[in-house]
Amino acid sequence: MFINPTAHSNSAPPARINTLFSFKTPKLSLVPVLAAITATAATIFAWNFGHPIVDWIQSVVAPKNPVFALPQLILVVVATFVFSEVGRRMPVKKAALIAAAFSCAWFALATGSAYLLGFNLAPIPVCVASFATISVAHFSRLWLIDLKLTRNLVALGTVGNLASSAAPDSRVETGLLLLETIFPVSEVVVFGLSESGGLEPLGRARKDGNNETALKRNELWQHCVDLCDVAANTRETIVENTGPSSTAARIALPLICNDEVQGVLFIDIKHDFQQADKMLLETFAEQLARNFQRNSLKHKILPHSHWWSSFSTQSSENRLNITSLVDGLNKERSFGAVATSNLSEAHAVVYLDGTIAYLNNSIRELAGIESEDVANIDLFSLLDRFRTLVFNDPSIAIRRVLQTGKPFSCELLNDESNRELQLDIIPVRAEFTSVEGQPETDRPSCLLITVKNIAERKENERLRSDMANLMSHELRTPITSINGFAEMLLLDGSIPEDSREYLSIISSESKRASALLSNFLSVANLEQSDKKEIEKLPVKVDKVVREVVEEMHDTAKKKRIRIVEKQSDYIPPVAADRGLISRAIGHLLDNAIRYSPERTSVVISTVLEADFLRVDVEDRGYGIPKGEQEKIWQKFYRVSRDGVDKQEETTGLGLSLVKEIVEQHHGKISVASAVGRGSRFTLRIPRL
Length: 688
What we know:
The protein has 688 residues and is α+β, with helices and mostly antiparallel strands. 49% of the residues lie in helices and 18% in strands. It has helices at 13-20, 31-48, 52-61, 70-89, 92-116, 123-158, 168-182, 214-234, 277-298, 313-340, 361-367, 379-384, 394-404, 455-490, 497-527, 541-551, 553-558, 578-594, 654-664, and strands at 185-193, 199-206, 238-241, 249-257, 260-269, 346-351, 356-359, 408-414, 419-429, 444-453, 537-539, 562-567, 574-576, 601-608, 612-618, 668-674, 678-686. Mean pLDDT is 75; it is low at 1-28, 60-66 and 160-165.
């Protein structure tokens, strides 16, 4: 077990940042006050303890009234507040030029006022105040920028991705557990650097069962420390063979991150050590060094914990260390991009300005992009390499994704190259906190483009569809014969009553099997990748609904169910296949009647919306559990329900067929249901 004798409390990173910046950051509104105090003090000093040159200037510009009294003080304060705004709003060079021009003009005005009016305008105090105010304002701006820069650096170094968000001590323990799993280690010691620069043990894992004496253990410990000192000073891995063979060794690995030694890792392996394992251990030590760097920086006094930290040398050094921490975090985050470069699926990450952030090897092969052309590829030049007769304008797809925020997907079937691909354009929303501590908006941050080779999948679909068609047609012939002969025998009046009952069962079951095959064929035909475009003509859906209601009237009457038809005053035609739409509405109405108890009602409504024509079929039946409402659209899925009559059993293909029909018309189908209260199926078809 890994024991950490110097474990610290693992406070969450955001709480750590709030503690560090609990003081109130100075605001620029304090600049005029600070500048007024500074300028007034400088003015009084220059006036009372001035150089002879100052006295000579005073005798020239104010020979009659050199007194510095309340009016002169008011002029200084006014100049202070005016130039505090100038220094706050303008760059220092421009503000200094304005102050110089003002000083020249004020000296001329002061000289004229002194000779003509005998009033002292205090030119030296006013000019000193103006330049002092600009200097204080500029220094304050630099100070506040430095505070904000440090806060952002601390946030960047504290907030990482999912992997780096784990506590540093926990990451060290996990790493050592992985090490013990791979190697038969008898002892592992982790050393860190003390404030004096020496080594101090931070953790130790030791296997029980060693029979050494206390003196022997002390000698081994001192030898371990000496070995680690050599590794820290030479910055090289030290391997010492400890047995008659080279498979037992003591290894001391310096933990180096950003060219700084963070500590030393000592490992005692009793057997099965190979020289090729040295590289593996050095790679592990590099990761451990990053963890140690993160841990040491976390527990240091981070910069700007007080307002005077801007003048602290230690704060400046800690801020420099944070840049190393951020560099380590960026390296860890880059591992994800390196890993995805070997995926079989083709991926590209694109910024919202159209520039390519990342291309993996698979998409470069599919798009035929050479290494020298990667820098010249942008979003549209990449999508242009996947153009087909259908996907002939990538800008429409990009616009749709950015407008709706929803993914775009299409199949790319190219007859010339004989390729069958699927293209997905997915908006990616960032789920992290900004350096200012504010959550990012839910807007897309970039686009993920994925291209999959679906040739094998499409071939399997075609084979499955062909086999389904063949089996269905082969089964339809004997079922039709069985049904026909059963009906012929039923017409014979000489057949006994009990045999007639058996013939009725044969006839009804054969019809049920025939309906199953018909539904199965319909779904298979609609799902075929090479299906023909359905014929869309203007269809009055309200008339189709009325016809379906009339057809289902007898079925509803047998169960004592009343069908209520509701329609809007004006229903315009829609572009649809009349037969398919009639079939979809018929399935919904048949299900509503089938799964409703007797003496209830089924309501079918036709409603005109802005972009769609909506058909609602609502019943007061058994209802569908919430966990199964997404599954009912799957083929052959039936909601499990106790006490279901055999006549109410279905094939589980009806709703799947309805969904396929609606999607072929670019419409939408949804359900709202509650157990024991009924269901409402909503079918939406786009208007003309």
